[in-house]
Here is the input.
Amino acid sequence: MKFFAFIVVLFTGALLIYGTIDMPDWGDPNSPPNRHVSPRYLEEAVEKTATPNVVTAVLADYRGYDTLGETAVIFTAGVVCIILLRRPK
Amino acid sequence: MKERYPDVTIETICRLLIPPIQLFALYVIAHGHYSPGGGFQGGCILGASFIMMFIAFDIGEVKRRMREKLNTILCATGVLIYAGIGVICLILGANYLDYGILDRILPVYTAKARALGSLGIEIGVGIAVTSVMISIFLNIATAGEHEGAPE
Here is the structure.
């Protein structure tokens, strides 16, 4: 049974490595993520959001909805910690 | 609960270090538009200063400065500020979290209104992360008992 599991792990690993062959090269300027919206963000961020730090511009402005979700995740973690652990006397 | 062993070196160093750490945390939050930083990072530093206070002193010291009720309310307030700014944009007639429309109520041009809107949400994130860090650490470190705390 352990041998069978080992075969499955090897097969899955080989499949994953095969999958990485199709990935674009590291830093390839013509890869899809670098051609889609990134150039627009880099060109327009300072002008349109008055924020010199592009990371903050993307995080807080272009992807604001995503960051709202992240904050909600942190809030949920805190509330769950209180609910599960806190035992007032 | 174990007795606390007062150590004058640790207490003095922490007393000296905690104010600059908190000031730096506020700087990281406020300066997130111009340098690496933002609400998550600044909130973590601010929460870490309270954790340092907990380690150097005891839980009573932390809870005297940040009461548990206030801390729990601040957890929700941070998310509320974030979502509230989105709702203000919605009320003014733009999309949710589209800060450009805030130039109707702020005396600045559109791009600056976007920067101020994202500063507002960074402050909300900072408040939420700070109080969640403190709450999680206190609850896990004392297994939810908060032993040795006053009240």
